[in-house]
User: Fold these one by one.
Assistant:
Number 1:
Amino acid sequence: MGAGHSHALYLPRASPLHRARPQCKLAAAFLFVLAVVATPREAFWAFGVYALLLAGLARVAGLPLPTLARRLVVELPFLAFAVFLPLVGQGERVEVLGLSLAREGLWAAWNIVAKGTLGVATSVILAATTPVPELLRGLERLRLPAAFTGIAGFMVRYADVIADEVRRMRIARVSRGYDPRWIWQARAVAASAGTLFIRSYERGERVYLAMVSRGYAGSMPVLEDLAATRAQWLAALCLPAAAALVAATAWGIRP
Amino acid sequence: MTAGPALEVDGVAFAYPDGHQALFGVSFRIGRGERVALLGPNGAGKTTLVLQCNGVLLPGAGRVAVTGLPVAPAHLREIRRRVGIVFQDPDDQLFMPTVAEDVAFGPANLGLRGAELETRVKAALAAVGMEEHAGRPPHHLSFGQRRRVAVATVLAMEPDILILDEPSSNLDPASRRELAEILTGLDVTILMVTHDLPYALQLCPRALVMNRGRITADGPTGELLADAELLAANRLELPFGFDPAALRAR
């Protein structure tokens, strides 16, 4: 398997990070982010160390840093919020480049930017080294209820099918001269959304019928044993362990 | 394997819960290894009949048996192993993240695991010429390829009878021919539901005509298609330029 996987975010390589069990990677990523979030915001050096750890990880996985950096763009809308904090914050103010900014707001903004960026970078690396089906199996191994992973799996599978349907419906609208300029002209779009919902619902019924016809009796068969060995878990947990150490040190040497 | 026909439908009548009566006493038999077309206009009850064959719907009256085993709630699992249905839209049938996992879904539900399961998956994909796509997600395949994988998902269960719902719909001529070659190469009983009369003629020596919940004709496909009156009475039409006289000669 593995030939021709072309998921949007997955970058196929032959690295130890790619080979690692998905459940180990998920747990490691989650714990790493926890450690990052638990770090005091004043400990600039700690965030530097985290960034270096992630950069090292990307290197081991053979992921090009510019590509990863570009993917960080998804967090921009959240960062926009952080930018407002120093402007509207209360309390003691400081002059920066001629702007009067709230000290507390600056700290809060830095806190969000640093931790947010590290968190997003972690998930960017996870997504680049793990195909979506494997992520789902990893979540299953981590005892996420089968209903959740099942729904997520169907969502991934049918996202393209539904997007295609949306596209065809749009073309059909445009072909009949529909060119909305104002919000009150959006009625046709709303109607299309309703139709799409009904169609998807009916498709759900047909998919279920096809599943039942192939012997489905309420639970998805587990096809592959993805159990991780102790060594695999230990290797994966090195990263969050290092991060926890950094976070603990940061608290320890805090003035 | 027990003796007797692959599929026996005996006086089957069925009404949907909303009161709409879809089948009015349908009876026919299909022998082992036969390839039979089920022809009929939209709304004739073809799909309803198909769903009776694997117990998704159970008849209000009459009886359906697959290689001797009656379709009843007690042994639906075995019935669904014996009857493989390929649905019209492959996107409804292929729901797992990869082709191989989807093909494995049926046999895994039957309890197969490990090497045995892998052999089944490989054999089924080889039968439809899709081995090299095993690891791909279904939505990255062409429509014709998805239809072939849909056939493989059912073949992997090693069914006694393969039922195809409109197998040629939306296929381009080359995919259509490829599928025909695959189907004629299979050593399995086939019931093919279709409006595509030339395709029925190409693949199935025998045809059943269905209209308004009843079987209205049963005979050699070539003869039925040459009978203009029969076709007209059942809202069936040959494509433009098709010569019924040429059919009689077959």
Number 2:
Amino acid sequence: MRVTKSIQTTLKYIIRMLTLLFAVSVIAFTLVKLSPVDPIQQYILSTGAVSPEQREELEEYWGIDEPPVKQFINWFSALLHGDMGTSLLYRRPVLDLIREKFLNTLALMICAWVFSGIIGFSLGCAMGVSKDKLCDRILKRICLFLCSVPTFWLGLVLLLIFSVWLGLFPIGFSSPIGMMNSDVSIWQQIHHLILPALSLSLMSFANVALHTRQKLIDVLESDYVLFAKARGEGRFTIVKRHGIRNILLPALTLQFASFAELFGGSVLAENVFSYPGLGSAVSAAGLNSDVPLLLGITLFSAVFVFTGNLIANILYGVIDPKIKEDYEIQNTSHNSDGHTVSENDNNE
Amino acid sequence: MNLNHIKSSTLLEIDNLSLSFQMYKGFVEQQQLEVISNLSVTVHSGEILAIVGSSGSGKSLLAHAILGILPENATIKGTLRYKDRILTSSYQEELRGEKLALVPQSVSYLDPLMKISGQVIGHKDKSKRKLALKNIFKRLELEEKTENMFPFQLSGGMARRVLVATAVIGDAELIIADEPTPGMQTDQALEALAIFRKLADEGKGIILITHDIDLALNFADNVAIFYAGTTLEITPPKDFLDGEHALRHPYSKALYRAMPQNGFTPLAGLQPYAGTITKGCPFAPRCAECMEQCKKEIPPMRKLRDGYVRCYYAT
């Protein structure tokens, strides 16, 4: 019974993901169609002057004159065959490009994600325990400040201080300029990664810290903590035995559900630092009317964010005994999905 | 230690306890909100003292005051003594979870994400208590599999016994049970109180905070009538069963008449809210025998027959 239940759950998620992807592709395609983005113009720009006849031929060849629904079906059926098209800007298959760019972005996002998670959680705990004391008040103000500062501005400030004034870090890119990719050492890559990762994590850790703080305060004011006090548990024991246990779950959920913000943030951070990842690729694609790449990355980001939310859901089921029991014992289709899968509207 | 010695020893003495909270009145002005005033009770080992009063009379806060787990804006006046030693906050810290135990009201006092075994054992003497756990569960008729359950999986009666188990496992001398019966069926409530009776017979002192006066009368050795933050009367339960004439304070008599089996007659008026308590007897506005003197100052606690009363005119 448990096996069928987990198969059911898996099926449910797969169906949900497919419908989501379909919806995203329809919306993204429609938006591109409605926008002034003109792929032909972009193509012509890069090849040089063409006569109106040649242009018409091109349009016919690409099927621009066909009705939009037909165009969508053409593109979508190619997509189903694993063909995401060729990037007009890079003249390479979109899938290859995404793979390559995503690896760069992944390094950036993992660093930022881990950093903001750990620092945010520990700072949040520190603030929650020392609620309304000086340390809490100062940290809270810093967090609120960081929350309200835009990433790109923060990125520029970091760039100005650490790269321009202090010269500690390079001003951009993922490897030293003029070097062959094969010659770049891992240390050089990390060196280039630090500033963008830092600015990306600085914006999200404040959020994590403030959430953790509030949650810990709620827990510390709960009946069960009062009872723990009545049983002689000290402050530290209470935080260790009851605090962490009860705030870890929401913190983890928040952390995995933050994939969307992470992706959005990386677009800005990568642009500021000219970091060659998915984020800078998507803005380049948008600005240069590279429709196949734009649609490809949009779909990919949807999958990425969906995965984050999916992991959060599954973790909840594994860790929280209440939901675990729902999965195991009750055979009702309990909807534990409290988090809406939000699509990231990158550049459209 | 022989049993007689246990029977006679005084565990907790509360003398003229007042408890107030500092609160903001508006934005700037602060005021002291008095919720318990001039309260005096004594608990002996082997005794169940029932503290009976309506909601909002400050009963739970009394429990928190004894344990020293009041919020920071609370101020205490008067003295609390445990075994003839003044209960300072460091002494309370030493006693909490060892000699002093609280049996809280509901399952919400258990950590929702911790298994029952871990919560009953607590954080001290883990290995010793782990061994004791099986015995205590058997005594309280809790199934062994309860150990691995989470609070949300417990039924009301099970939760009650688990909460009792947290107090029993530490070998506490004084157990404060805060509203242990609401929401329970009569047989469950009787069963819960029977557990406390048994514990008292083993020599523990028990403070039973409740508003279920009928149940309290069946199990307690002494009943303290709580009204607007103070005790108006302390009486053996026998007097309640004997009838109105055996009781001392006008409020107790009114309470007696309001009981379903004794006529169900309500008394006009309301218990004064915290903060509106005046200098005089808190019951004065509703009392038929109220004199000028009652409005000026609160009558002191005095011994009368087998109990105590806080009234100038009680006989």
Number 3:
Amino acid sequence: MIQVIADSLALGSVYVLFSLGLSLSWSVLGLLNLAHGAQFMLGAYFAFLVGEHFHVSLLIVLPLVVVAVALTSVIADLLVYRRLRIRAGTPAESELAMLVASIGLAAVAETIVQNATSGNSEFIPSSVYGVRTLSTGGSVLHITNIQVLMTIVTIALTIAFAAVVKWTRFGRAMRAAAVDPATCELLGVNANRLFSVTMAISGGMAGLAGVLLGIYLSNVSFQMGDPLITKAFAVIVIGGVGSIAGAAIGGYVLALAETLVVIYGPASYQDAISFALIIIVLLVRPTGLFAQRRWQRSLWDTSRRTRSCSSRRLCT
Amino acid sequence: MTGDSIRPVRRSQYKRAVSAAAILAAGSMAVAACSSSSPASSGSTSGASSTGSANVASSTTLPSTITVTSIQDLTGAVGPVGISTQDGMNLAVKAINSSHMLGNTQIQITYKDTQTTQSQAVAEASAAASTNVDAIFGPVLSTEAVAVAPIVESAKIPTIFTQAGGPGVVTPGGYVFRVTAPQSDYQPNLVKYLAAHNVKTVTMLYDSTVPTTAGIAQTTLPPLFKSAGISIKGSYGWAEGTSDFSSYATKVASENPDAVGVEGITTEPSPVIIALRNAGYKGLIFGGTSFQAFTLQAAGQQAKGVIWATDFDQNSTSPTTAAFVKAYEAAYKGAPLDYAAEGYDAVYLLAYGLKDTTGTFSRAALQAGLAKAAKAGFTGALGHNVFVNQDLVEPGYIQTYTGSAVETISGS
């Protein structure tokens, strides 16, 4: 059972990181970013490229890749999403246009990597980033150092992200924009900058999940991000759109459920678990297990704006 | 400007934006799909030749160009398999055309990409069936082949498949031929090898969404194991798109069988092998045709000692096999996979079928010619090719991975 928990923690960590990013862009920006899987794949691919040519430490590769993928998100925002938002007449039109554009951007990214790799999977040798098995307790538990790192990084990042959202000015701006973006703009929030920074964070999380999973599996393929979109939907539905705790718990719950199905049940039903959980949660609690009421999500008020806008970073 | 006047302007701007985004998305998908028509060049590069029983001129007047549509999985999950097959086919076309094996007749292949989707394979087959193409080379994936086979049979177009090992593809007496022996042909030798090396228990891991791999794991191997006195501890199928096999590996490691069979496609084996070794499993791992040097290199030393059965031995000293390997390495700067050898021999089967065509040239005449050529057999890249009911039969070879290269440890 302890091995099951260890496996679930590693897998769940990937789900959490991936889903947090997707949930962030969806709840704050209204963008269902279907290019998120491609960004995840780019993170893994960048890790492969760096390991192939430079042989640097994992501690250097992680932030490098996160920044690189975050930059791709910002570029996508500047070149595509922002222009669509400007031209759209209503928020609904904007969301639709950006959704369609995200599909195209995903196809472009995957095609570039597919051509670069000739459609083959690329190998990240375990020696490049020092991946090794940490067998403990005799033969009771087999876990690699990368699995431990995945779990620690995810938990730490989730806590840090929750703190940013709850206690920082930027976090309040994000929460306010999630509730009423139009009013936020009127109150001085620079919407374009908020969008770009949020996209960067979202993309960075996807990239981080990608590099960790790519190193864990020692394998990178141009299609590796596609199956995770479905998992992310399950996690977000379980946890509730915009809920950080929900995404974290949902990710680990989904991973544990899938692992238990493989260990104790018909293994081929592993993916069906994702859909079954979505349906059950939608029937029981459509907003998700940890969704908050709309009026609780915004702590942005005039008095706070007056106090916090002194540096005028997010204010016009 | 009033609010009302802003809306119509912005609505048309919105329409342009959505149209532009949709065009961008569609264009991107078209770029992703773009690897379709690319006629094989009929250059004069000399290549390996094959020998066969039909070394006589055709008794019918062949067209100056034999047009063939090759429906291959050139992109997508099995893209590497399709590309390797294409490479073998192109090499054969060059050899046949440059040596004037068919006199003044040249073979010209036009490639269509299925993108590893059944619907696209069906669409391409239907499109080819509505043209005057003389023959078709079918896709490698079983799920596509079983959908394409009825179309080409109905349209009476001579069609040659490689790989596509699922049931229901080849109908004896029909228009479909297959130049890949079903894995059930050479699995018995693999099971014998396992039994000879004291394997008493096995666990199977397989891709449950592919008929070939599921069929081998669920239908072909179990009775062979039973006959050899090997018991199956467990049999677990994974779904398409699975990338993390740690939970499967944990389960297998807890069972600790003497050997684990891994039946997957293209690059699936390595992540499974890595997961098994990371979970502490130290026993023998065996597999099928997805075990190749390029699919196992990701696992590196963790794949050392894995074994598999295959229909192609690139280390064979057979003159035709050696000549094929030499020509392939010269043309593509790398060792050929079995998919390339099968593609090569598929084109040569077509050539021998053309030579055996009699009467007025037609698809029906070509089908009869192919049946005659298959019945006679020929020696090609795969070795001596023997067909039964238009399907290649092959006892196969057992190969192993040294951690960096492939070695043949048992052969026919």
Number 4:
Amino acid sequence: MDAARKGIVVLPFEVLKRALLQPEASSLLMFFVLFGITAILQENFFEAKSIVRTINSFAPLILLAMGQAIVIISGGIDLSSGAALSLLTCVLTTVMKKDDPITGVYALILAFLVALGTGVVNGLGIGYLRIPPVIVTFATSYAWLGIALFLRPTPGGESVPWFRVFYNMRVVEGVPEVLKSLGNYVPPALLLIVGACVLWYIVSRTRTGRYIYAVGSNIESAYVSGINTGKTQMLACVLNAVLIFLAALFFVGQNQTGDARMGGPLTLRSIAAVVVGGIALSGGRGSVYLAIVGALILGFVGRIIFFANVPNAYQTLVSGIIVIAAIAGPAYATLRRELR
Amino acid sequence: MVILEARGIRKHFGGVVALSDGNLRCRQGRITGLLGANGSGKSTMSKIIAGVYRPDGGEIWYKGRPVHYRNPSEAKRDGIALVFQNLSLVPDLTVWQNVVLGMEKSRGIFLDNQEAKQIARDILSKLLPGLDITRKVYELSPGEMQIVEIAKAIAERPQLLILDEPTAALEHAQVKSLFAYMRALAQSGVAIVFTSHRLWEVMEICNDVTIFRNGATVAYIDFDQEEKDPETIISHITGETVRSSPAERTFGEKPASREVLLRAHIRSKVKSLRDVSLELARGEILGIGGLAGQGQNELLYALAGSFPGVQCEVEIEGRKIVLRRPQDAIQNGILLVPGDRQKEGLFLEHSVYSNMVFPKFGLSRHPVIIPEKKYRGECEDIVRLLSIKVSSLDAPVSTLSGGNQQKVVVGKWLSFDVKVFLLADPAKGVDIGAKRDLYEYIRRLARERGIGVILYASDHEELAQYADRVLVMYEGGIVAALTGEDISEETITATSVRAR
């Protein structure tokens, strides 16, 4: 009787404790807390315009974080993703001529091929030459930066007007009314993110998706099970490159310029987003979708600092502390699980 | 019908001959047992057949044609599956995902998960009823992992299934259901090779046995024609009847006194070690024998205070202490020389000098500034004493030979007030000359300074030569104690395999 009652009392507590020790759960909890705080601090948070603005400002990091998550789950890491993003914006704005709409199509095709190229080079180094991913992608980040600076030493370049469809459909001429009114509620940035999710949804239900987890979890076991580990890591890098390409489309649509140095800071932020999302840096563990949550958490931190009127001098310090707290939760949960 | 025949297989690793004349014949629908003591070459043989190693010589005929596999995938394609000991499972995938890993089927563009789950459920419902196939592998116990590993090999529908010590991690009931499944597989025409160190298992399940000793096949017994006689098998494993010159036992002088130096009571909560009590006299060399992996390393770690989950109460020179951390043991003069010197005993890239002084830093009364000159002098003494061949004290340990590396591991404790030395297979991978030096030195140390030595050696010949008393371990417990005239390589090995 006594034990039974005790069992009832203890059980929900134990369940809750165990649930909170899942890295995923602590990320989601963090997300809701920060979401709530932001919603309280920012008065017009739930207005349509404000929501669109929020999505737009978070979109590049979300896309990069998803790509980063795929590479990290496969057992790698990409220190070149920001540089690759910059490179793609430079390629796009160099090929495009303002007055010639068809150049937009050429730019799209060429930039996509360049994106695939960056993924293949990283994949060759990580998957086939078996060089540590940190080294490979650190080296390639300088290559991408170098090419980007060669194309566009200073920010600038041209963009065809219709490229704004990737940012805001209303301002582009010739877009059907239906799409324009859809664009009022569903910004293109959201469509790009949904597209990325659909892409990963499909991949995750194929062999490639399963093998990405297997290779990241234990590459030796995967190899003796007959999995082509080199190819798997290569495909992870290429998928990452495709997501970076989507981020580049959004950036050029928004700014109409290319910038060789804009992506740099995003690299480490994307890795931070992955960690905050509860994905293990050791690979094989976590969900790509949680990288979105991680990116949102980092985004909300910036918001909160801004709306809470934190004095300028302390903004970086305060946001740093919040990020440490956000990383500590999932990291602690992962550690607990690994020690068990 | 003979499905596989291997003849005259040879294989060496570096200078060590693992197989000199390996022969094996497998028939469809029959279970063949591979038997042999530690290092007799039976594992090497299974791995060569499955394509993990390439043989140096000899020929393998599979289904009537000669084969030369370069990797496990090629052998797998031909229907030869080797069950690795937890080598091929991916911890973050679920049980059913692991069972079909590498051979997933698709329906349209997506994976056919329903069929995959069905395959996993079919096999596992017989091998381990009640196992939730949606659990992640890292959540499973070692025994459950082993069974999933077996299920994975079976899911490939092999024609020749090689099980390399599959029962080591299993409980009795699990072994029973594995055997039932093996019999069903054999009935459907699969040839099975089964290795185990438990003799009774082999007697129960196998149709015939092939026995290895010192890298060569020494006997083949078909149970259909000959009776199952464990004594015959044991004599083949130990080679009692054919051995011409037994290893000479070098007693040296007997330990002077029978004064008890150490009394230990170990209460274990882990599976790999049972509750164990032992006594050690001053100046005595106590040997720990048995087949590999029967808890010998665990026992030594427990005595060194570095095995969590085990409570070790020790009475040393009449003082009672409880060992909780390695420091507790070190400060009381109980020092461990770990078995894997490269991983646990040495900082390979550091110099001989720093390797020797590191342990001193753990002393409670260590001067703040390191007395460099004094330590260097001590190190030079030890190097001279043990005749360690080294160009200078500052040479990285990785440049030394295996034997000299081992001397450094032993030597670094010599300037301490040693009371008990725990040696975990100290001569593994050490050449014969250095091995003798090392053991002679250890014995001198024991006799002259009255140090107690607990020596675990996987090579029973070493125990027979140097130990005053031998405890034989089996499945985490001590099953026999041998003294005086009873100590010989043959009796130790025979006691090890006869245990049940």
